Amino acid sequence: MPKIYDRDYFDRWYRERPVLSRQRLARKVALAVATAEYHLERPIRSVLDVGCGEGVWRTPLLGLRPKLAYLGFDSSDYAVRRFGARRNLHLARFADFEMLRPCPPVDLLVCSDVLHYLSAREIDRGLPGLAALCGGVAFLECFAREDQAEGDDDGFHQRPASFYRDRFTAVGFAQIGSHCWLSPALAGRATALEIAPAAPRRRRIELR
What we know:
This protein has 7 helices and 7 strands; from the N terminus they run ααβαβαββαβαββα. The protein is of the alpha/beta class. The longest helix has 19 residues, at 22-40.
């Protein structure tokens, strides 16, 4: 049965038993913004959030950069219906980015806690589009078999980290650590030690 991202889902994982506190989210957002601005050498102006859910990244992003343009996409009818008008959220599945080009390449592309719930086919269809839409840094947060993740395991795919790393690099992203990847446009400007393979991790983490 397909996973349903309805009000009950978001109430359970974001309000009743949230594993991502506001403080933790704020640190994650600050990391992504600082990394993008370090490599772009200017403040970020645009963010595309793929698999944005209720758009929880929007408020902390605007708290740091009040003038940035935020655009979110999610497959949840509930989230888009409830928050779309206020938070600039739109309906789309990940695979839709095979063809979907809703904006020029953005300074920061976010795909947080999404990919490990998608089929390999959907990832392979949509990922080249994300590379095309990223002009700065992509925050591609996903968890692998090595992480021994806890939390929302409904539909979670137990894949090795190499599954994601190989696919990200195949479409032109370059790994710079902490779930951050340089866009194909910036990858060639990085110094040798800014680009590094991710080390295996055994720390127990939680999914939302």
